[in-house]
Write the structure tokens for this entry.
Amino acid sequence: MKALFYGPGWAPGKPRTGLLSDIPPVDIHAPIERYDCEISFWESFYVMLHSFIIAMGFYIITDHPLVRNSPLNAMIIMFYVLFALTSFGTIFDRRSIGPLVESSRCLLFFPFDSYVMQPWIEQLTPPMHLHGFIDYMLGLIRLIHIVSITVWLILWFRNARRNPKAFKAELLLASDNKSTLLKEDKCISAFAYSNNINVINQRRPWAIALYAVTMVISLTFMFFIFALRFDHCNNIFKTSNNIEL
């Protein structure tokens, strides 16, 4: 909010309008510094996986009676999606609260699962050969969230016990972009230091292959979900002889 009502160059102890003398001159001929967050491969893959789960779940429950007939429940779902996007943003921005925010989001999945998803599953009447597939996928999604909570809490406790200044000194010695790191930016945190942002985000062939395989699997699942939502496509799922999931 202070970015809206306080002047440029404001900092604690300065006038509300800020001090223009503290604002560095802008070189219009200098290349624009593009925002290109550097995160590790596992973090990028994690965000992609959970984004797919959220998109798939959001598409499925849009026809849920609890959502379709209740503006309040629809608002809750929208806030959950916005909170998820905010949580992913803390991961990309490498905020120190990123692990805690993301573990909280994963915890919120379980009340949502018991209040919305489970009643919806009980009301479904899919073909018999799809019952096992649906149960397996829900169990896998729950396991992914449990593992995610464990991993993020471990990262949060580990980073909370460390000294951010020591990590900043170590990173400044190894980093080529010292000017960015020296800025008073909230993104510079123990979470960023502990992950060594100067050596991550290297495009390895196996990482690109894993991205491609995950995208193909995700699109395949989305096709099955779209087909189940339309009456004229349900015939191909009625017998196990037509398609095997």
Q: What stands out?
A: The first helix runs from residue 2 to 5.
